[in-house]
Structure to design on (483 residues):
């Protein structure tokens, strides 16, 4: 992309994009770490994830401050404006994704005896898929690549399918093991959190698509846009 | 056009030359009647030159030559039958630098109606002067000193006086060539408010270097570059999602 005549404008936008990349990386890692802590019942690791979420929250504030300053001082237009607005919204969504990872970490101390719950073996694969969606959608933002954003959206179905099958497995498990309903319920909430992570990654993909093209993904799908 | 009304001005395949140099290259555009149209583009892109073709102001430049057709309400303004003085009453103009006559405020406004014979009695003139100054948002500030010199007013007031002067002959179109570039932000805001007030009563075409101003005051924006019309569309589309790469580069500050 051609540089702005006012070089400081490019610096500001670059800083904004770097912050999004950083907080996205932290959120993605937090999901993976939370699953590892869950599998190993690692309370220290879980505590670190909960603590680490503060950093994601702090970056969100920084993105908001920078975006407001950029709009006030640089009056961005067209694709620049769409990108700044997208960054602002993406920061909010990534913060939520971080919260889901934190929420999973908070359940680690409550899940002491989950080893004998068979459905747990499906959770890490689901978490991996959701974290990859987060990773790839932030790559799409960095590359301003609407096609990559579309591909992320298409993968949300797989995460939803994981959730549906986990739901059935866990309900069956609860019926067969009434004494472990509490544990299984925690796992169900974790599965739900991961399903939400996939939804949020899809939302980010829609923002990336609009920022890059000026067209809403839904309009494209409805065939309203011929371009 | 977005409106159902026929365009006020239709320009077709307009070329303008200054001697051998071509300043405008095959520009075709419709100007709506009840809206504000902004012309934007880098210096030397031809936007002011094109604006001046709309009331034949380029006739005053000896080396200038205009080709193509420009119709005002379907009437070719370059036809030999067109009365240029009458045309400039119908298509008024406000310039970059306020240029009141070195006469009283009253006379500045009454001058046009007098030479065009639009008023005869003192009462007629009083009415047209007050109405024009009111529409230009200047009446309250000058009503007690109408005999003071127009040049004694502040820059922003002078520019509103020039707008009142243009309005006084009851034009159909007002052309504004960077009307705020010599004004401070408050005076600029008053002119912009005035443009908003005048919209609907007159077709307004404004040339501006200030893209925020174009975004604020206009409903349609035309982007000129190197003498060609690159893109013309709804202002909200031009500034959020321009179709042309050159428009995007210009409005986002990557060119110009």
């Amino acid at each position: 992309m051609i540089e702005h005549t006012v070089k400081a404008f490019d610096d500001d936008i670059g800083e904004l994009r770097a912050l999004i990349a950083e907080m996205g990386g932290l959120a993605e890692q937090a999901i993976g770490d939370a699953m590892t802590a869950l599998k190993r019942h690692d309370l220290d690791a879980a505590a670190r994830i909960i603590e680490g979420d503060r950093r994601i929250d702090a970056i969100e504030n920084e993105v908001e401050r920078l975006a407001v300053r950029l709009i006030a001082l640089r009056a961005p237009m067209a694709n620049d404006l769409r990108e700044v607005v997208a960054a602002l919204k993406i920061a909010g969504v990534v913060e939520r994704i971080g919260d889901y990872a934190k929420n999973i970490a908070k359940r680690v101390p409550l899940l002491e005896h989950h080893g004998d719950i068979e459905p747990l073996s499906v959770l890490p694969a689901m978490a991996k898929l959701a974290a990859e969606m987060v990773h790839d959608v932030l790559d799409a933002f960095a590359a301003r690549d609407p096609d990559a954003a579309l591909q992320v959206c298409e993968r949300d179905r797989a995460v939803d399918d994981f959730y549906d099958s986990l739901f059935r497995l866990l309900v069956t498990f609860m019926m067969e093991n009434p004494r472990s309903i509490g544990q299984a319920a925690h796992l169900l909430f974790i599965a739900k959190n991961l399903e939400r992570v996939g939804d949020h990654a899809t939302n980010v993909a829609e923002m990336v698509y609009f920022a890059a093209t000026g067209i809403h993904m839904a309009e494209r799908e409805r065939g309203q846009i011929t371009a | 056009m977005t409106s159902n009304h026929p365009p006020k001005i239709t320009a077709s395949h307009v070329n303008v030359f200054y001697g051998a140099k071509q300043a405008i290259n095959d520009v075709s555009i419709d100007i709506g009647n009840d809206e504000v149209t902004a012309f934007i583009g880098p210096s030397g892109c031809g936007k002011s030159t094109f604006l001046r073709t709309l009331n034949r102001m380029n006739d005053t430049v000896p080396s200038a030559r205009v080709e193509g057709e420009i119709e005002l309400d379907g009437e070719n303004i370059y036809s030999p039958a067109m009365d240029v003085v009458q045309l400039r009453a119908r298509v008024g103009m406000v310039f970059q630098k306020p240029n009141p006559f070195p006469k009283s405020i009253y006379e500045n406004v009454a001058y046009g109606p007098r030479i065009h014979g639009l008023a005869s009695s003192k009462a007629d003139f009083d009415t047209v002067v007050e109405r024009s100054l009111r529409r230009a948002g200047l009446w309250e500030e000058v009503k007690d000193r109408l005999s003071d010199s127009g040049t004694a007013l502040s820059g922003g007031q002078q520019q509103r006086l020039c707008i009142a002067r243009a309005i006084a002959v009851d034009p159909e179109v007002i052309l504004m060539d960077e009307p705020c570039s010599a004004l401070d932000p408050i005076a600029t805001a008053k002119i912009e408010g005035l443009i908003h007030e005048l919209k609907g009563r007159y077709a307004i075409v404004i040339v501006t270097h200030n893209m925020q101003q174009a975004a604020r005051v206009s409903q349609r924006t035309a982007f000129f570059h190197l003498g060609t019309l690159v893109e013309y569309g709804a202002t909200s589309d031009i500034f959020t999602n321009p179709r042309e790469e050159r428009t995007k580069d210009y409005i986002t500050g990557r060119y110009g």
Summary: Residues 9-251 of chain B form a domain with the Rossmann fold fold (CATH 3.40.50.300). The longest helix of chain B spans residues 122-135. Chain B touches chain A through 15 residues (CB under 8 Å). The CA atoms of residues 85 and 163 of chain B lie 18 Å apart.
